[in-house]
Amino acid sequence: MQNKASHIFLRLLLSVFTLSFSCFVAPAQWYDPDKVNPKAGELYGKAYEEATSHNYAEAIRLLDDALKLEPKFVDVFLSRAGIRADMKNYSASVQDFETALGMDSVYSKTYLLPYSISLAGTGRFQQALNAVNEFLANPKLNIQSVNAGKYRRSTYQFALDYEKKHPAAHYIFSPRNAGDGINTTALEYFPSLTIDGQKMIFNRRVDNDEDFYESNRVNGVWSEAALLGGKVNTNLNEGAQNISQDGQWLVFTGCNYPEGAGSCDLYFSVRTNNGWSEAKNLGAPVNTEAWESTPSLSPDKRDLYFSSNRPGGFGGKDIWVSHRLPNGKWSIPENLGEAVNTSGDESCPFMHADNQTLYFNSNGHPGYGMTDLFFSKKVNDSSWTMAENLGYPINSIDDEGSLIVAADGKTAYYASDGKDTRGGLDIYSFELRDDIRPLKTLWVKGKVFNKKTTEGLPSAVELLDLKNGNLLSRIQTDEEGNYLATLPVGTDYLFNVNRKGFLFYSDRFSLLDKNIDSIFTVDIPLQPIEKGASIVLKNIFFETNQYNLQPESMTELNKVVALLNDNPNLKIQIDGHTDNVGQSNNNLLLSENRAKAVVGYLLGKGISNQRLSYKGFGSTKPVADNATEKGKSLNRRTELSVTGN
């Protein structure tokens, strides 16, 4: 019985690693499985029965008892190594493999492949490569074993090459359990954060029922989670959700819903005064008869990323994006292309608050085996940088699921069954390596309102790159005029607010200092277009003592052109102002020339000179104290005033 159980158990060990090869036992080996203690062999057979039922703890206990009777029972070490590997206890697995190899290297050499996998599970990729090369040197392997060995060899070589390109000598991967407020003996997974990092929405599975829960961060600790209020949770399973950065929208996956177009569809809920609204199917063209899941909204809520196996992709599941149209509907989804998608499966996209960095998982790109986590950066609306692996130990030889990154650009959250889990999957956080971080992202929030009546105004809020004028995001306020816009550090931003019938608002945010740590609150009074109304053009730039317009001024100047084109009866005056440095006459002339330069630009864009005038005031109309540099900078300004409408 022991001999039969031994060979069955060895096949079980091999199945753990999904491989099959011809056994090769050289005549020089000393170990003979037919000569072990019969009682030990009987325990071994019972352990096999427990292992086939996945009762691994009991199987290991029986194997331990077998070793007490037969300390040199090589098959026990090999089989226990396989079980421990299946339990992802790779260090213990390596120890058992090495004990068996040390006892009889000839008998045990056919297990060099699973041994190499366990070595890789501990991050010892060079030793894993050596072991698999020795395994592949066996001339009697069958083709399936050769292919399995070559595949593993490629993953170990990838790991070693990655280490050379991405040295991380000072990086420590130290996941932290999110705590008892969030994690329980049930399963918690798919975390999602608001922009301020103070609210988390996540999935919890209780008695096979998935629902959404929320927790708030209070004094650095997550509060006890509660069911999400309102009507979004049902007796069906809700999962794979993403909360918008402003906390007002929730998109998620609903599978096998009665009104569903396919097996899994995307649904949408909004926050109301009575909690979250009843979810609505996003419908066509987002949802199809295929599988749609794992949605992620861009921070401005203009783009919806998701995974789908719909036709037209690269194979398997791909990541797609749909754009929100001016009428509120969603566009026909576009495939993100071959830089992101492969013939394998890509899923769980997460667009960071910087609106540039997309994290996702894939089993199609080169990696450590199974499913790894990657990131790609948006070049423009139609192209992406080639996907980059997040590296070991974030990625391992096992399947990796989803990952989100907080606005600080360094704190990542994911679900794991770590050693200190409260039960199964828990939510953990860890710090990302520097070279795989997105941009740290701050935010500006406030209210757009009518300056005359103080009534909130629904408006469009645009964020542009001041250097090149590229539109980075366009946010629509809510009905009361409230808005929230994200600001990745490292750039100077042009901030515009537009509404028909009002003068536009512009401002500038300089976030070139990557260490800046301010949150901006900007309430925006829009002035109705009427005679006497005026605004400061805050993004018109000149060199010191010069009146040639700087390239960074073009975006703002074009806004003035658009304002005049949209209001063909509007007449304006451009006023130039300086600080009090220098001679008064020189300042007066400089301010007049600067105002004249602005008018000259507008004339060049086809605006009639009958609608334009200009005047220089020098330093005669200060708006701040010239005793400070900040005051001087405020006094050096270009204003637009309405002279007729």
Short description:
With 645 residues, this protein is α+β, with helices and mostly antiparallel strands. The chain has 12 helices and 35 strands. The strands form 8 sheets. Strands 2, 3, 4, 5 and 6 form a 5-stranded antiparallel beta sheet that branches. Strands 7, 8, 9, 10 and 11 form a 5-stranded antiparallel beta sheet that branches.
Mean pLDDT: 91
By CATH's scheme, which homologous superfamily of the largest domain applies? TolB, C-terminal domain
Largest sheet: 5 strands, antiparallel
Gap between N and C termini, in Å? 101 Å
Total helical segments: 12
CATH architecture name of the largest domain:
6 Propeller
Could you tell me the number of beta strands?
35
Structural class: alpha+beta
How many structural domains can be distinguished in the coordinates?
4
Helix content: 10-25%
Radius of gyration (CA) equals 32 Å
The low-pLDDT segments are: 1-8, 10-27
Please state roughly what percent of the residues sit in beta strands, choosing from under 5%, 5-15%, 15-25%, 25-35%, 35-45% or over 45%. Answer: 25-35%
Q: What is the approximate shape?
A: elongated
CATH class membership of the largest domain: Mainly Beta
CATH fold-level assignment of the largest domain:
Neuraminidase
